[in-house]
Amino acid sequence: MKRPPAGRLVALLGAMVLALVGVVARLVLLQVGDHRALAAQGLRQRVHPTDLPAERGAIVDRTGVPLAITLEARDIYADPRYVTDPVGEAAKVARILNLRARDVERRLRTPDATFVYLGRQVDVRVADRLEALGLPGIGFLEVPKRYYPAGALAPQVLGFVGVDATGLAGLEFEYEDILAGTPGTRTVELSADGLPIASGMEIVEPAIAGRTLVTTLDREVQYLAQEALRRAVKENHAKGGTLVVMDARTGDISAMASYPWFDPNDFEHAEREAVRNRAVTDMFEPGSVNKVVTAAAALESGSVGVREIFQVPWWMRVGGYTVNDSHSHPIQAMTLGDIVAHSSNIGSAMVAERVGSAELASVLARFGYGSPTGVGFPGEAGGVVPELLNWTDITRATVAYGQGISMTPLQMAAVYATVANGGVWVQPRLVRGTSEPDGRLDEAPRSEPHRVLSEETATMLTRMLASVVETGTGGAAQIPGYQVAGKTGTARKLVDGRYVRRYMASFVGFLPASDPRVVIVVSVDEPRTVYGGVAAAPVFSEIARHVIQRLAIPAAPPVRLPPFASDP
Amino acid sequence: MSLPAREAERWAQPRPQPVRRRAITPARAPAARPPTHEPPHPHRRARREHHSAFWILTAVVVSAMVVGLVSLNAMRVDAAYRTRSVTERVRLLSDERRNLVNDVARLSSPSRIGPWARREGFVHPASGDVVILQVPGSSSSTGEVGE
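YS: structure for the whole thing
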């Protein structure tokens, strides 16, 4: 065989070397130059991260009973391209999901669509029934659903969450950070057909569940209070009503509600008016329940003695305006106790005149008028108090009997709790804290109690408030075996800057008078019988009887009533 | 015998000269080689035995490694499946627990029991029907408040 010319061999070798160099160069480019991008691309093709939603924390009452809980549910969707029998499938879906077959069929026939919802957050058991039918083109997605097992119980306090499991109102909104938790991720390696490779990479960063929010609400007290309020509103043909039940010593709120209310499981159909927590977000002119502050200012400043007698007419002129009592009467001799017990507007105005605007405004500010209580609720109102510079004689007179200023029912509860506590203001609270997985309670921070009144003043005010129930306008609040201290209120409503003949009837009180455990505020909006002593005091009595039994509040010896003008 | 010694011994043996093939010429018949009946060299037999043992040992070791690796992998896959299954079971049990907690809360809710009780004629006890006793030491009663 003839040996090939050396030139060809060299050329071949050169070509092969060139090819090899080309391959090596490409390899270097791929492995060194673009390795990051290519490795990332390969990883993206193989590795698939999915979000692991964090379980939303529950909201429980003070005894640990769930008031809001997250359950598994299903979103049901259809891919119209795969639906073979729209009429038949629509009939079956509509029957199980309780929808109109025509609506379902229209969705199943949606042109050019690959995804249409048939139902959202459907109960798992209902979805399972539908899934068992194996209808073509119908799919299911696992989603969480917030559920309120007690239904319309404290709905304005608890609030609700949207379909994306985010709090939209109430405590659900206020404590979103605590309740929502932190979502995790699960990264798995997928095969070419999209199935997880059993021995492949799997990195799970677990979701951190939201914490359980422990409220101060008591489910039983809340229910009984709501029932009493609902009945009172119906019987008085009122527009609505609001109540607060609060522990006098700790500020813990056992019940809070506004009627009408709504079912948070079906909040989409709730009226906007029913969603507001009026006890915290709505202000009203307190009326005569504010006379306790006037009396407090009088006693604290020492400008009025408890035995001092005022000659009180039934009307008088103040700064060009006429103010009057609710009923006409001849000039009466009244002590401060009489003025509070019989709820005399003129008497209060006379006392306020003696106290002076500055002192009265100072006491209002010390009680927290004009500032939110910091209860931890979204949209809490602070009330409105006129600037002291703008006070006139008529301002002072009207503020003395609770008109011309506004406050929330919760603020009023805090004022009466201060009197019940011997003059020490305690911050109201709706949330005790969060509970650890082992059940340990992590207490929420709270502001320090502070003294607003001297103990002597608080004691005298308690005696005056007890006299309101025993001899005055609040007789309907009496409870056999227990001494109640409280005050009625009937305030004219301000509509578009003018007072109208519509009223807010209120009763605020605490019991037992000598060892107060609970403060209750009841206000009835536009009752047919306008007086607080008629419309609201009986509700107070009914709620208080339930609270006594539920919280096992023992009776305490009665306090003595204050000096009256009729005393010998 | 250690391997380097054996190698040295092997190198000590005379190396067979490379056979040079010559072109076959049909004119001359090849000379018949005398038959050789020499017994195999004892070192060569030992080497062949060594080779067999080596290959057997290698096969055993490699097989064991392959079987071990495959078993290990199978166990890992099995464990992954079991973990996934247990995780799923835990999830299902958690869901079931939540459902049961919810059922208990719903069924014990006063808003469900209250209306039922009213329909059945139950009433709340009047305030005089229940007497709350003061347990010594549990709560202080301040007594009558003086002027």
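YS: worth flagging: Residues 6-33 of chain A form the longest helix (28 residues).
IM: good catch. Also The CA atoms of residues 182 and 208 of chain A lie 5 Å apart.
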